Automatic annotation (TrEMBL):
Novel STAND NTPase domain boundaries: 181-338
Domain of life: Bacteria
Record-given protein name: Uncharacterized protein
GO molecular function: DNA binding; endonuclease activity
Domain Restriction endonuclease type IV Mrr: 14-71
Pfam families: Mrr_cat (PF04471), nSTAND3 (PF20720)
Species name: Amycolatopsis keratiniphila
Coiled coil region boundaries: none
BP GO annotations: DNA restriction-modification system
Amino acid sequence: MRQTRQMDASDIVRLDGQGFEALCRDLFEDILGLPLEIFAAGKDHGIDLRHVADDGTMSVVQCKHWVRSGRPALLKHMRTVERPKLDVMRPTRYLLASTVELTVDAKNSLCRDLAPHVRSPSDLYGIEQIEAELKKRPTIVVRHHRLWLSGTAVLQGVLHKNTVVRSSDLLDGFVECARTFVPTPAYDLAKSVLETVSVCLLSGIPGIGKTTMAKMLAKSYVDEGYQLVEVSEDVKELDNAWLDDTKQVFYYDDFLGQTALEHMFNKNEDSRLIKVIGRIRNTSGKKLILTTREYILAQAKQRYPKLDDEQLDPLTCVIELQNLTRETRAKILYRHVESLDLCDDDRRKIAEPRTWTQLIHHPNFNPRQITSTLRLAARSGRVAEELLRNLDNPERIWAHIVEEDLDDAAVHLLEVLATFRFGALSEHLYEVWLDYRSRLSVDLDPRLFYRALRTLQGTLITIGFGNDLFHNDRIIDFHNPSVGDYLQARMNGNLVRLPELLASVNTAGQAMHMVSLASQFDENGEAGHLYRHSAAIAQAVIRTFEEVETGESEEDDSWAANLTRALSVAENLQSPDLANFVVGRIEQNPTEMRESYFAHLADLVEQIHESTLIPKEISRRLIVKLLGTISGDPVAQSDTEEWTTLVEAHAALQFLPGAEASKRLAALRAAMFERAEKELNTYWSTDDGGCGDDDWSWMQTKSMLDFLETVSLTGEAKIAYERAKTASKEYDDSDYVPAPLQPLIRTELPIFEPVRDYPVDKVEQIRKRLVDTVGSDDQ
């Protein structure tokens, strides 16, 4: 497990004077909610940061970056030098920020010496308090790169900036969410599950309140000092943000996607998720909150037995409409009405018994519909009437706006945005919007795009990472999931120019999202209009195939994994063109095929074997080629390849269907048995044989023993086997510390820790002993 630490005081002390002032400006602007002036180097007259209000009142922050002088010197300086300046300046509010640690006595002393200019000890910030405030504001830390130099936690935030900033944006939305949240028994149950097993999965229909409840659960842990981490794409984000010594709550909304087949596209995501759940359940100070739509969870369990076998049911809290009692619905309605600035007339109409009774007993009552309708109708009046109409026809709320109130540039922006699963960078959104409109032969003036952003912001879309409409790294996403649902319904209702829209898709993520949308079926099992454009969607998959990122781990994507996915899509869309593309890529015998993981090649073999689109003759030819890549020449490989490579090939072939796979597996097993028996006879034929102190050889021996466990050995081979097995057990009991290293460990010297406090001769002695053990300085 990775060893990480939080940013500490030494990271802040590393700043120079101007850097510390700049950091304090950003920090105290956020704390005070006021813009602060910062000044050039020179005499400051006791003013480092300042805010002057319209009425002349003045707030001052003084920054004392005292690294070496210490606390007594700071107290004396403030009393003798800074106090006279304060008497002249007479600020309305004075705050002190210092890189010196301030004890209770020190703060009390400063309050007496600087009275009446200091309101309370809470306006005196020592290094420890500044550090604590910065931990709550990772986005400020990201802007000050000198803090990254030694703080692993901070560097991690920089490397995964999108996750950090997204989590910060989520925190900002908690206050608004809390204004309308109504606790229910489901919330109490979910909280109990989290307290008991640290993982909770919230499930229910769209709009029932899963996301709101998840946010409030996360907020309850943030209030207890947990760091919030929002996960949006896959569980690797969670692993990247993991900090061993930090309490963290991970928030993963719609973790299976928003459509029934979206979850099929992340390689090994089910295995990774199960591992993460187990890891969090076994680690104190970690919580995981997931949400998904109930029918998607049911289909995912059918597709991925691991999600079912691992017994997710005890972690799952289902939020059902019938659980929203009359009293709960009334509270939801009341909290939403109270949170908005409605006119008295609208409030009176909603308060009429006939109106509110109709609303809370409506069969389509849905917290999301209440939220969206009130926010939009509050601008136009007639709130009570709009609420009832929109509950009668849930799509009406967005249909009226899109069809009646928006110009074509804004509508096209929404249609393009609907092709992205997780929102889009503004620069990328503009690029696709421009291509789409070019194919539609309409005005390409870029000002129309930014005008559309202004029109849609706050109502139909959100602009993340700030509100600068013209900054290229802003994430644009739908303000409410129901907006995306409506846009997808427009696509399936033939209200969108799909040929032009699909032709403008230029990333693998968009292409796969369109596949998942096309795969939706209504309650009668009928496909939507989007499915009729399967050929265009397949071309988008082909067009963007090379853009899928591959990784260095078996859990990441690879050439073979991408082809497996493409062939699965071909079967789903019944696309011969996409199946032929897969065939062509394999027959080209590219280098990427030979570099793919055996497990991924095995998945591809299995997908080809099950394909209804590839003729059997071609299928057999492809399978032979792929199996040859996995197993090669077993006899030659058994002498030349690493044992681990042979084990991986064996695992890949073990469960594949077909006679060819069985034949190659049998040949590989025979060669591996011969290799393992030979190795044991070579190294374990005598009592003084063995692997010495080579960890890798021990691991290989253990693997060979496991492999031979099912075989009946006789004679010398059996004696060698038993000798190696006994030695391996003794090696396990020694905690895998090679014998030459054990004396060093027993000295209890911190040889793997900084040794700057040890005498030079002692350090050199340790270094020499290590070099003698492992062979060289480099190792």
